[in-house]
Automatic annotation (TrEMBL):
<dbReference type="InterPro" id="IPR013149">
    <property type="entry name" value="ADH-like_C"/>
</dbReference>
<feature type="domain" description="Enoyl reductase (ER)">
    <location>
        <begin position="10"/>
        <end position="320"/>
    </location>
</feature>
<dbReference type="Pfam" id="PF08240">
    <property type="entry name" value="ADH_N"/>
</dbReference>
<keyword id="KW-0521">NADP</keyword>
<dbReference type="InterPro" id="IPR036291">
    <property type="entry name" value="NAD(P)-bd_dom_sf"/>
</dbReference>
<dbReference type="InterPro" id="IPR011032">
    <property type="entry name" value="GroES-like_sf"/>
</dbReference>
<dbReference type="Pfam" id="PF00107">
    <property type="entry name" value="ADH_zinc_N"/>
</dbReference>
<dbReference type="InterPro" id="IPR051603">
    <property type="entry name" value="Zinc-ADH_QOR/CCCR"/>
</dbReference>
<dbReference type="InterPro" id="IPR013154">
    <property type="entry name" value="ADH-like_N"/>
</dbReference>
<dbReference type="InterPro" id="IPR020843">
    <property type="entry name" value="ER"/>
</dbReference>
<protein>
    <submittedName>
        <fullName>Quinone oxidoreductase</fullName>
    </submittedName>
</protein>
Length: 322
């Protein structure tokens, strides 16, 4: 089968053996897959959790059809249209744990479905389960113009947030944030952004920050969070190390939690997917939670898809079809 494989001389489409499902695994005939920021690092040889290195089939999320079942797989049958996340998505066939997938709604095509699994699982966990958003509260999404950021704002609105603030350093993308749930859009590279947040919250700060940027905004986030507020760190695109004002953290008694899928067990991931199904799946089926597709590429043009992502001018998801 065709697959997009990492090698030191550069990732490329190669012929590899089709995998066989074991245990609770499902074999998926992939019809579309979406790019994520972590893919760009792995394409350059970086390790992402336990994944990476020579011979790694890249990719993290997909949509397709069940082609075969492992002996212990439950909940789906051959031919079902599904979407999910996991390793080795950029291939004609991939394997997925039966608890790490969703049924694709009948009103959704493969390209649309491929945009959703990572964003839904990541941001329902960050905004609702860990972030504990409640009706009437205020939330700031740092890095809101990414696919997961756009989903975070929509989930916050769905759960009754009274004020949703989104950040983007790109003026065009910032102007689009109100289309996806933002009441206020800010530029986190502007030194005055904390004052804008405080003004919008009557001087108190937001109840919750979901941070995909960190780096230099880490201590600014503390200043923008109310006393006994919460910060959930999801990403570190702005840097993994920075100054951190421990005194301000303590004075505001902020709950600061870091989250990642890289160190979660399969049992924990299954639970996250189940929470999405129980809590917000009806909104997915009703198309209340969806992501824009910036551009679709054929699988043979996957290098062009990565060049488009690395140009960093897109809004929403970049999709590759097989």
């Amino acid at each position: 089968m065709k697959a997009y494989v990492y090698a030191p001389e550069g990732a490329a489409i190669s012929d590899v053996a089709q995998p066989t499902p074991k245990g609770t695994q499902v074999l998926v005939r992939v019809r579309a897959c979406a790019l994520n920021r972590a893919d760009t690092g792995m394409r350059k040889g970086h390790v992402h959790g336990a994944a990476g290195g020579v011979g790694t089939v890249l990719g993290m999320e997909w949509a397709g059809e069940v082609a075969a079942l492992g002996p212990d797989a439950q909940g789906v049958k051959v031919g079902d249209r599904i979407m999910g996340s996991g390793a080795a998505a950029f291939a004609e066939y991939t394997l997925a744990d039966h608890g790490r997938l969703f049924r694709t709604p009948s009103n959704m095509n493969f390209e649309e479905a491929a945009t959703l699994p990572v964003a839904l699982a990541t941001m329902h966990n960050a905004v609702v389960t860990v972030g504990g958003i409640q009706p009437g509260q205020s939330v700031l999404i740092q890095g809101a113009s990414s696919g997961v950021g756009l989903m975070a704002m929509q989930i916050a609105k769905l759960k009754g947030a009274k004020l949703v603030i989104g950040s983007s350093t790109d003026a065009h993308r910032r102007s689009r944030l109100t289309d996806y749930g933002a009441d206020l859009a800010i530029d986190s590279s502007d030194p005055g952004w904390v004052d804008q947040v405080l003004k919008a919250t009557g001087g108190e700060g937001v109840d919750l920050i979901v941070d995909q940027v960190s780096g230099k905004v880490a201590s600014q986030n503390l200043a923008a969070t109310r006393v006994k507020g919460r910060i959930v760190n999801v990403g570190r695109l702005g840097g993994t190390h920075a100054d951190f004002n421990f005194d301000l953290h303590a004075a505001r008694r902020i709950d600061y939690v870091g989250v990642t899928f890289r160190t979660r067990t399969i049992e924990e991931i299954r639970e996250i997917f189940e929470e999405v199904r129980k809590d917000i799946w009806s909104a997915v089926e009703a198309r209340k939670l969806q992501l824009p597709i910036d551009k679709v590429f054929a699988f043979d043009d996957i290098d062009e898809a990565f060049a488009h992502m690395e140009a960093n001018k897109h809004l929403g998801k970049i999709v590759v079809t097989l």
